[in-house]
Specification:
single chain, 250 residues, alpha/beta, Rossmann fold, seven-stranded mixed sheet, 9 helices, 7 strands
């Protein structure tokens, strides 16, 4: 089952709003969340520069274009042609290729991938389709490959987001080992409202985002609304920096 969203209409909202919050007409909130996601990923990514990367559910290409200068090649996989058109309109790197697929059957890609990135995609997929999607992603990884995922998590059924345990169980059934996982952002936070309405200058956003990531990763307990969680998964045991991270997060 997939949550019904008209991604064609969302593509009309613009580069960041299409994939984050289409109601953020001023763009300050979306800019902050985009920055926070990239800071969180930068913290855990281990890059040599020769990686082939899959951006699963790439949307407008905001993550694909961000990582493109750091790696050999990026393939962006997306279900909506309008989103691909939006990504092409904002092209900033030549080593990024976009592909449309039907949401179920993966197209032929230059697999296996060294890295898979996915932000805000698995959170709208549930049940058997979530497990089959994760299994296909696992098959697309090299034996030492790593998948970095940022997804919304909630304990409130009205929010309609999976619990942490649902993700962990789906990883296990898909033969992916979860190496690290922790919250990086609250869905509701008083500072975010100040950011949205222009009461905090953009020059402060980076420092606030670093502070929030550090603050959230130490918090546990019931989630009445939702949190953005970072999941790091792979086919192999954790090592190097990831090995240390296991002791922090599990």
């Amino acid at each position: 089952m997939v949550e019904t969203i008209n991604w064609g209409e969302r593509a009309e909202k613009g580069f960041l709003a299409s994939g984050i919050d289409p109601a953020d007409t001023k763009g300050r909130k979306n800019y902050y969340i985009d920055l926070l996601h990239k800071i969180a990923l930068e913290e855990v990514l281990e890059l040599k520069g020769d990686e082939v990367v899959l951006d699963f559910g790439c949307g407008s290409g905001r993550i694909a274009y961000w990582i493109a200068p750091k790696v050999k090649k990026v393939v962006g996989l997306e279900v909506t042609r309008e989103m691909i058109d939006l990504a092409e309109k904002h092209r900033t790197a030549e080593n990024v290729e976009f592909m449309v697929y039907d949401g179920v059957h993966f197209p032929v890609t230059p697999t296996p991938f060294d890295i898979i990135l996915s932000v805000g995609v698995l959170q709208i997929i549930r049940g058997k389709l979530l497990k089959s999607t994760l299994s296909r992603l696992a098959q697309s990884l090299t034996k030492d490959g790593i998948a970095y995922l940022i997804e919304q998590v909630s304990d409130n059924p009205k929010v309609r987001r999976p619990k942490v345990e649902e993700y962990l169980q789906a990883f296990k059934e898909s033969k992916l080992q979860c190496l690290k996982y922790y919250p990086i952002r609250n869905g509701r936070w008083w500072l975010l409202y100040l950011i949205r309405y222009g009461m905090i200058p953009k020059g402060w956003f980076h420092r606030i985002a670093v502070h929030e990531i550090m603050k959230r990763r130490k918090t546990k307990g019931h989630m009445s609304y939702y949190k953005d969680y970072l999941f790091v998964t792979g086919k192999r045991p954790a090592n190097s920096a990831l090995q240390a991270g296991l002791r922090e997060t599990i």
